[in-house]
């Protein structure tokens, strides 16, 4: 992974709080604003030193929501239940929007974006097709699997380039 250049640090400074690490990998410091993850991913894909992005912890938050809601209700039975009932839908809506956004970014910048899903539930899909798009969203259950998949993609690209060079000579 390349070190972040001053220009890239300045671009990320505009979207993250001042206490972010200013290093690669970029830690979104638990920012809950969905636009932060989208903007950071696009800034990386615009960067000429970035060939691919692996995002971690943006998808798969639903597994934590059910127990959290139960805990909040046990701690405060007077809490507004309707408010708590909206949370799962909002998270699923963000994840669907993020996946659509990422697939569009892959087409726009022609660079792969792989995900690592925190934990799946019964509705989690590791491969998601977006109608009308060539690329699909792909997430893995661990960072290691995501890195291995990216390494295989690089190896395949080298093999293709070698095959093309042999054919042309």
Please tell me about this protein's structure.
By secondary structure, the protein is an alpha/beta fold. The chain contains five helices and four strands. It has helices at residues 6-13, 34-46, 62-75, 81-109, 143-168; strands at 53-56, 113-116, 127-129, 136-140. A four-stranded mixed beta sheet has the order 1-2-4-3. Helix 2 (34-46) packs parallel to helix 4 (81-109) and helix 3 packs antiparallel against helix 4. It is globular. The model has no long low-confidence stretch (mean pLDDT 88).
Q: β content, as a range?
A: 5-15%
Q: How many distinct beta strands?
A: 4
Q: Give the ordered list of helices and strands.
A: HHEHHEEEH
Q: What average pLDDT do the residues reach?
A: 88
Biggest sheet, in brief?
4 strands, mixed
Helix content: 40-55%
What strand order characterises the main sheet? 1-2-4-3
Distance between the termini: 33 Å
Report the principal-axis shape. globular
**Unreliable spans:** none
Specify the structural class: alpha/beta
Count of DSSP H/I helices: 5
Radius of gyration: 19 Å
């Amino acid at each position: 992974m390349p070190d972040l250049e001053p220009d890239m640090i300045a671009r990320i400074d505009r979207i993250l709080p001042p206490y972010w690490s200013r290093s690669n990998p970029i830690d979104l410091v638990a920012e809950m604003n969905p636009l932060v993850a989208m903007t950071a991913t696009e800034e990386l894909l615009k960067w000429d030193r970035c060939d691919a992005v692996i995002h971690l912890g943006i998808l798969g938050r639903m597994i934590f929501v059910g127990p959290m809601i139960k805990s909040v209700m046990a701690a405060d039975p007077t809490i507004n239940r309707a408010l708590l009932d909206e949370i799962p839908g909002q998270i699923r809506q963000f994840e669907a929007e993020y996946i659509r956004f990422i697939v569009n970014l892959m087409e726009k910048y022609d660079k792969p974006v792989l995900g690592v899903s925190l934990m799946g539930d019964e509705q989690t899909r590791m491969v998601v097709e977006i109608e009308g798009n060539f690329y699909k969203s792909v997430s893995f259950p661990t960072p290691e699997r995501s890195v291995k998949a990216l390494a295989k993609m690089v190896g395949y690209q080298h093999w293709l380039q070698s095959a093309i060079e042999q054919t042309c000579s």
